[in-house]
UniProtKB/TrEMBL annotation:
PANTHER family assigned: SERINE/THREONINE-PROTEIN KINASE TNNI3K-RELATED
SUPFAM superfamilies xref list: Protein kinase-like (PK-like)
Pfam families given in the database record: PK_Tyr_Ser-Thr
Source organism of the structure: Geodia barretti (Barrett's horny sponge)
Protein name stated in the entry: Dual specificity protein kinase shkE
Highest rank taxon of the organism: Eukaryota
Length: 539
């Protein structure tokens, strides 16, 4: 094959450099190469057989940058998965882990979802049990290092009789983890061995309608292996119960049944009998179905889904018929349970499921297919391949297209209603927001007015307090002044009384003096008179 150049310009230099250091014989067999965005390394897949089948020997590390100082040349291919038309490759070693998603040219052109085999690890990854890793690596099982997986045992998805499924984290990928029920693992060694054999069986199963296993890991808290697989939304039973459409649109019924039939055909082509096909073991994601529960090889299936014979591929086709009834009617099919008369003790399976079949319209395209699957004679039932073919023909019918169009229109109508409701809600929210803003504004104004009134009240109270204190001070001063005035009045009165007394005394003295003066005057007059008489006598 000619060498495929990388389409992205920025990787051309690295690819050219890689070509200079690679022999022409190797370049001749290169199907495609990928360059990591951080330019750490360039990987290539070298097909040995079919373009859609790869083994670990087909993958080479072609170049690595020394700057990273990560020993990527010793990296092991731990696993890969199919994502639509791309291959997701996970390289890992003791120092680093890198994940890249690439699209081979063959898949780009064909657009097919081909089945790919699991890559086997060339170097065993880190695990809690080195001996288990070594043994499982020899068996072709990819063992995932415990450090790369985080099992959330408290986030239980399903707690069954034999196994527990919980959420987990593998690198950056949300996934599911399945392990033997702790109580069962203590007392039933064959269940653990059976579960391990089922895990080994899954490693060679790669189909878009089979739940994808990533690998297994071991943990000291769990007996036996922990199967790491892709995380689905819910099982078909819950999907049918929770669906708001009653019944499901015809195209949805056919799509779900077609997905199960294709997965069943792949299992039968690999000589695998599911033996427990029912709505709890069919998982749904994005409206499409995948078969799960392939890990048990010896568990007995549900009685309602159990055929009259046991054990070949035809029992899965019988279970498919019961499953199709479940999808069409959205009710778990239940066989007749009434007590039969001796002459009627032998009845065929179609009669046994008469209650469920009566709920299916005679013109429904799935009715005859379901009846054929419930045939008592196992070899007269349609094979999985025939189921796929008949369902494919139904998918090309006008009824399928009409159902698809009706569902599309219904979806658009629902979307318009949702949009209209959202717009109305948005408008109401805007009006409510405006009203709320107005109320908030009024509340703020009210609070401001109340705060202002409170401030004014406090100021007034302070003023009153100050006036009261000032009044008390004035009253004190007035009282002091009054007292002082009274004291002065008293003093004045006392002074006046003293002065009056002094005046009276003085007046009395003056009077006495006047009296004495008058006496002196009289005496003087008498003296003068006497003197005059004396003088007159002298003369």
């Amino acid at each position: 094959m000619p060498t495929l150049k990388l389409q992205m310009e920025k990787y051309r230099t690295e690819l050219g450099d890689f070509e200079q250091h690679t022999s022409a014989e190797v370049l001749k067999n290169i199907q495609f190469a990928i360059a990591q965005p951080d330019s750490v390394a360039i990987f290539a897949i070298l097909p040995q057989h079919n373009l859609n089948q790869f083994a670990v020997s087909d993958i080479r590390l072609l170049k690595h940058k020394i700057a990273e100082k990560a020993d990527l040349e010793q990296a092991a291919v731990s696993t890969y998965m199919i994502v639509e038309s791309s291959v997701k490759i996970i390289f890992s070693n003791s120092k680093c882990t890198c994940t890249r998603t690439v699209t081979p040219p063959a898949l780009q052109k064909s657009g097919s979802r081909s089945h790919m085999r699991q890559m086997r690890p060339s170097v065993s990854l880190l695990s809690s049990s080195a001996s288990e890793c070594s043994r499982l690596a020899e068996d072709g099982l990819p063992v995932i290092a415990c450090s790369q997986v985080k099992v959330h045992q408290h986030k239980v998805i399903m707690n069954g009789d034999s196994a527990v499924i919980c959420k987990a984290q593998f690198l950056s990928l949300s996934c599911a983890a399945k392990y033997i029920h702790p109580e069962l693992s203590k007392c039933s060694k064959w269940q653990v061995e059976d579960f391990e054999r089922g895990c080994k069986l899954l490693q060679n199963i790669r189909h878009p309608n089979i739940v994808l296993p990533f690998g297994i890991c071991y943990d000291e808290s769990v007996v036996g292996p922990i199967l790491i697989m892709e995380l689905m939304d819910l099982n078909l039973k819950d999907f049918l119960e929770k669906s708001h459409q009653s019944p499901l649109p015809l195209h949805s019924q056919l799509d779900l049944c077609s997905d199960v039939a294709q997965g069943l055909e792949y299992l039968h082509s690999n000589n695998i009998i599911h033996s427990n096909l029912n709505a709890t073991n069919v998982l749904v994601k994005g409206g499409r179905a995948k078969i799960g529960g392939v890990t048990s090889l010896q568990l007995v299936c549900l009685v309602s889904h159990l055929a009259v014979e046991f054990y070949n591929e035809d029992i899965d086709c019988f279970s498919f018929g019961v499953l199709a009834l479940h999808v069409v009617t959205r009710k778990m099919p239940q066989p007749l349970t009434k007590i039969l008369e001796p002459e009627d003790a032998t009845i065929n399976e179609v009669t046994r499921y008469k209650i469920s079949l009566d709920k299916v319209d005679d013109n429904h395209p799935m009715r005859q297919l379901t009846v054929d699957c419930l045939n008592d004679v196992s070899f007269q039932r349609p094979s999985a391949g025939e189921l796929c073919k008949r369902l494919s023909e139904m998918s090309k019918s006008a009824g399928y297209r009409k159902s698809q169009m009706a569902d599309l229109l219904s979806t658009k109508l629902v979307n318009l209603q949702i949009k209209f409701t959202q717009n109305a809600i948005h408008k109401n929210e805007q009006e409510q927001r405006k009203l709320l803003e107005q109320l908030q504004k009024k509340d703020e104004e009210k609070r401001e007015a109340e705060m202002k009134m409170e401030v004014d009240r406090e100021n007034m109270q302070n003023t009153i307090t100050m006036l009261t204190l000032h009044n008390k001070d004035l009253e004190g001063k007035v009282a002091a002044a009054s007292k002082e005035l009274d004291d002065k009045k008293t003093e004045v009165n006392k002074i006046s009384a003293d002065e009056a007394e002094k005046t009276a005394t003085m007046l009395a003295k003056i009077k006495d003096l006047e009296t004495e003066k008058a006496g002196y005057k009289e005496r003087a007059e008498e003296a003068d008179s006497g003197l005059a008489r004396y003088l007159s006598q002298q003369h």
